Amino acid sequence: MSLYEKNLHELHDMLKKKEVSSEEITREYLNRIKQTDDKLNSFITVLDEPAIDQAKKADKIISSSDDFDPLTGIPLGIKDLISTAGVRTTCGSKILESYIPPYDASVIKKLKAKNAVIVGKLNMDEFAMGSSNETSYYGTVKNPWNLEHIPGGSSGGSAASVSARQCCVSLGSDTGGSIRQPAGCCGVVGMKPTYGRVSRFGLIAFASSLDQIGPFTKDVTDCAIMLNAICGHDPSDSTSAKRDVPDFTKALLNDVKGMKIGIPSEYFIDGIDSEVETAVNAAIEQYKKLGAEIVEVSLPHTKYAVSVYYIIATAEASSNLARYDGVKYGYRTEDAKDLSDMYFKTRTEGFGSEVKRRIMLGTYVLSSGYYDAYYLRAQKVRTLIMNDFRNAFEKCDVILTPTAPTAAFKLGEKTSDPLQMYLSDIFTISANLAGTCGVSIPCGFTSNGLPIGLQLMGKHFDESSIIKAAYAFEQSSDYHKTIPTIPNL
Amino acid sequence: MEFEAVIGLEVHAQLLTNTKIFCNCSTKFGNAPNENTCTVCLGLPGALPVLNKKVVDYAMMMALATECKIAPYSIFARKNYFYPDLPKGYQISQFELPIAEHGKVHIDLGDYKKTIGVTRIHMEEDAGKLVHDGVGSDPNSSYVDLNRACVPLIEIVSEPDMRTAQEAVAYLKKIRQVLVYLGVCDGNMDQGSLRCDANISIRPVGQVELGTRSEMKNMNSFKFIEKAIEYEIKRQIHVVKSGEEVVQETRQYDSHKDITLSLRSKEHAHDYRYFPDPDLVPLRIDDAWIEEMRSALCELPDAKVARFVEQYKIPEYDAEVLSSSRSLADYYEETVKHIDAPKAVSNWIMGDILRELKNDKLDINECPITPKMLADMIKLITDGTISSKIAKTVFEEMYTTKKAPKVIVEEKGLVQVTDTGAIEKMINEVIAANPGQLEQYRSGKDRLFGFFVGQVMKASRGKANPKIVNDILRDKLKG
Description:
A: alpha/beta; Amidase signature (AS) enzymes; 11 strands; 37% helix; 13% strand; B: Arc Repressor Mutant, subunit A; 3 domains; nine-stranded mixed beta sheet; 16 strands
């Protein structure tokens, strides 16, 4: 078994026993990236030399201590909207093609403090707007399980890179499903923590009230380790929660006896792929066998979630993206007659069509005369959706649903129909609107060999329960151990 | 038809915090361009605002001082518009649910007093500034200086309660006075620490509905504000009288030509697309915090005036002048502590001290004469050591040399002559030298008494005690 096939906790054990060095691991991953990324396009920027330097630094710590952080010396990838000092951070956009942040995001500071090794910046839908990674200015990421299929989005590079073992773990961000949906598409574990759990400082905003950073990992154990590393209050982020962070690895118990798992009928709708439904139903049966109690719950406002989301998210985005004006950083048009011409041309040339579509939508819903009918109304429905979850969680510990209605669709299949594309996130959007946590874990494969994702959602700040449930399922299955075979390697 | 004006003011006051409203950058004025900036106030991707508590403290102090109701729950909103001095493409301000509402300010116009309503006070960040005209390396470029971006402001919005330019100026002066009293703003209009927009409309006297208003932007002196409003009222009356309609627009005052010019019409008004800023949590203020701020308030101008009248029995006019600034009031009270002569002290401060300071463009804090020195000098007058006339000389000397009044009196030999023998001798000499005048006085020309007093004082070089001079002279002239 190659080093790159190993999980984070396995590599940590080897490092502890001095069986391998971080440099060796890092070189192996960099080599893997070199071999595979022509096909996958997961990375926008690969940090060969800096990664080796970081690995050497980690090795010094490892050689002088037996008690180092589980992330020390572990190669990881970062979605290219998390600011990294001195390393360009493009957000998948032309408008930030040349932007090099002078500072590290708070999560990056945490990872660097643990001497993790950053191997590169990962491809994504432009400004995290997309469900297929096809809106990236830097080209589409391919699904490692089938190169003709999408990897999901917007954190497509983060999902594909872990799935294809180009890095051990990665960070993504989830605004409406952008971690869970690609994790489902690529057959890895992807966790969106509770809103406020992970600092957003340095995360380039798409929709501030929905965005949340989270990890992609090969298994649930690694997910718990990653959460331990990145969660916690940050005084630089006013929306960061002042909450104690538990040791999430304590939830790795392989015991769901008596746990109440809620199944919302609203999530098993027409249009859900039958293979997905079958796999999810099988997972429900598995939980019964493991001793969990299955209860029916209702999330009655689910049908409004996509509409509400596309009002709130675009409204916030229209304002968040106003700063890309060609004045201070990033792309500026080359010929402008005057200031307003410079604004128009810079933004017309710098943004892709999906981003422009959402800026226009958001500008419209916030406009005077429309605000009450759209934005304000959407906020009210958002409250109803939150209440749905509050009520449902009175009956259960976690909520189980499919991650997405279908497995990864084909590249180009939905690019001409934005509404169809938006429905890819129909099962994941509610957790963002409600601010709860959710994780996608692999629960099977379609007949075409594409992974199917199972979503578990938890109460606010109760990531432990979904880790517990996810871990028990994982221990009773092999899906997480299957590695995609990338053709013609 | 007679018209009346309806005026409301929006006052922006820069708060005197050491750091900016949403980051830790310095607010120091005059640093090199973009020296006071960081990831947050540069609007870098991913940077987030964190509210400076001091800004809330200061806003609350002003709210309490203007009798506003402080909101237990208020929110920050984004005001969206594009301009190169606005790095994020939006300004963080408050829109719905500001920190304070429903206050009032009392103004005194001399002939009458009036209460002006305060609609609301809200907190916001300032924008940066653009620098043109070839200051940088490229003469054809404009440059952006973001030192001022994210500097804390409060906006104080009045009700449309003012009817004349004079009322507007009195209101603005009062707002400025209270801000400076509280120490939350330096009130400096030249540097833009205090800026004022005015909404002006006219209507026939007796009509309740408001007319269409124009907004006058960024006027930076009391004089210009008064002139601009006066001009704008006249202009609007002229428009209506010529059978036309006032259009809603933003106008700007041109101080060189003393006219107002249209800046942009309503059709071109911005749609700011306000919405709650998702990067900031709602601001919750409990009673304990409000009480903490209330107890931190200093005595405010109105209360001080009332107390001065009551405690020192000085006229209200004196009390108002002395209370015009906290430091002047402190100076007065310090002086009165040293000498129990409240009216005399008031006269000296309002007259000589303020005149000298004005000539030298000094603040009372920079006055060369300390309250103790002033009190000592007044003591010398009341105990008869020097005359009021000599005191003027002592005052001038004190002001220029900062020497104690006693020292000046001794060095210059200014002690009043109270020795009756010496004075009698001088009087005899004066009478002997002016036989003609004596003759006339004795034949009934009483007015010449003053002439003789003057001659004696001149002979004594001002030092003779005037009362003794009068007494002896009256006797001697009788013959």
